[in-house]
Amino acid sequence: MDWPVDALVEVGSKFLEEEENVSDPEVKASLAVAFGFAHANVVVATAKMKKNLGRFNYVTPTSFLELVKGYRSLLGEKRGELLASAAKLRNGVTKLVEARDEVETMSAELEIKKVQVDKAKKDCEGKESLW
Question: ∠ at Cα 73 (72, 74), nearest 5°?
């Protein structure tokens, strides 16, 4: 016996209450409704397939629970990947800032060295004229 859509939505909501990766209650409610309607539509499509093609496709409440669990698992996996990418990006930006600071320091040192080289050059030219 198939579950009514309201029951599917309620079960989906209960499973999503525990989900830490989705903080907005409206998003959780929308997801639960989407899961419920998707499962109900699969049941309808399965009945059509059986009637038109004579093929059986079993859709059970366990299938619905697996859908919700699979979504939660995929969401956690993708969130982990996103956090890892963000960490890499932060690290890259930190390295760029450090490199910029080093270049600024080297540029200041280069200006000081240029002044010293110009002075040494003038001193050498002055000594050459004495010879």
Answer: 95
Question: Which distant-in-sequence residues (6+ apart) come within 8 Å of 48 by Cβ?
Answer: none
Classified by CATH at the fold level, domain 5-130 comes out as Histone Acetyltransferase; Chain A (1.20.920)
Whole-angstrom Cα distance, residue 131 to residue 117?
21
8 Å CB contact between 9 and 18: no
Instruction: Calculate the CA 62 to chain-centre distance.
Output: 29
* Tokens, residue 47: 């009945």
Dist. CA 28–CA 15, nearest whole Å: 10
What are the two backbone dihedrals, phi and then psi, of residue 2, each rounded to the nearest 5 degrees?
-80, 150
pLDDT digits (tens, 9 = 90+) for 21-57: 787 888 889 999 999 999 999 999 999 999 999 888 8
8 A C-beta contact, residue 48 and residue 80? no
Asked if residue 13 lies in contact with residue 32, where contact means CB atoms within 8 angstroms, the answer is yes
CA–CA dist 119, 37 (Å, integer): 83
Tell me, what amino acid is at 59?
Answer: V
Taking the model in full, what pTM does it have? 0.67
